[in-house]
């Protein structure tokens, strides 16, 4: 089992910045990817950004490219999402995820989510 605890979200103005963090604890596999997803009411959860275990590969949804940066500190088992140039459409509940290999299977673990509200 892996536990993920996200930092508190909050309110930001359009054009502003926020940083989310997510600390993982428990049985963390060496083979993993960590990421951030977001969800708004009535919509499916979408991948925002993901980073591989060594940090060598990052992937972003097109709508956040050039504005958001995902990073991780493996010594702290923590992943970050730096969000710049925020837009009202970034308003959502953001969820931290770890996708990892456990033996012959893969598992996903999720944080409880944190609300980010961007005002225009």
Write up this protein:
The chain has 120 residues and is mostly beta strands. It is built from no helices and eleven strands. Strands 2, 4, 5, 6, 9, 10 and 11 form a seven-stranded mixed beta sheet that branches. The chain has a four-stranded antiparallel beta sheet with strand order 1-3-8-7, with no helix packed on it. The termini are far apart. The model has no long low-confidence stretch (mean pLDDT 97).
What's the topology here?
Layout: E1 2-6, E2 10-13, E3 18-26, E4 32-39, E5 46-52, E6 58-60, E7 68-73, E8 78-83, E9 92-102, E10 105-110, E11 114-119
Parallel strand pairs: 2-11
Antiparallel strand pairs: 1-3, 3-8, 4-5, 4-9, 5-6, 7-8, 9-10, 9-11
For the secondary structure, the number of strands is: 11
Quick check: average pLDDT?
Answer: 97
Shape: globular
Main structural class: mainly beta
Characterize the biggest β-sheet.
7 strands, mixed
> What is the H-and-E element order?
EEEEEEEEEEE
Helix content: under 10%
Low-confidence stretches: none
User: In angstroms, what separates the terminal alpha carbons?
Assistant: 40 Å
Counting DSSP H or I runs of 4 or more residues, the number of helices is 0
Radius of gyration: 14 Å
- The fraction of residues in strands falls at over 45%
